[in-house]
Design brief:
The protein is an alpha/beta fold. It has eight helices and six strands. The longest helix has 19 residues. The radius of gyration is 16 Å and the shape is globular.
Amino acid sequence: MLPYADVLLVRHGESEANRSGQLARRSWDPPLTQKGVLQSERLATQLITAPVHYIVTSPLLRARETVAPLSRIHHIQPITLDDLAEVDLGAWDGRRLKDLETANLPDFMAWRKDPEANPPPGGENIVSVGERVLATLESFLENHRPSGLTVAATHADCIKGAVLVVLQTHGPASRHILVPNAGQLLLRHFDRGRWTIMFSPLCQAEDENQNWD
């Protein structure tokens, strides 16, 4: 086995929730939009020659649909990891971002500034999300010992949280991390639980306008 394992974190393609500006996890499990489907197909094309060994995914529909074309191309059955699911939004689940902003709720404004110190009422903070994402990935890698790339379909705040944990920084920094739909981040995991952020040609950004939150 190599002394490290690579994981490509992928945010799901545009979902119906993204298009309508709604927060979604528990009360609503929306599918991809047509644009999101095209993004998922583009992802599969980008990774057609990549050494994909495993595909893991959040249990939510938008993540599972995002890796479906990749799964077909590589003939790999995705494995669902519950802890790759979206941040628990507590009382805000299903609400429209615009409505929360218009209401000017103190707890919402505080969350916008620092999602670590001010999680949604009854929800998770951003660093806890990153910790659970990295912990479930580490456990998966230790149990499966991949010799190639693991592609992990997850959500924007999951990727932001993972970055915060790897860089050992804090919640306010997440406001300076942009994760577009179908955006990719390559992480390398070494023995003894050390993670490193990698720059790779696998990571391709799009120029089009989209929901960055």
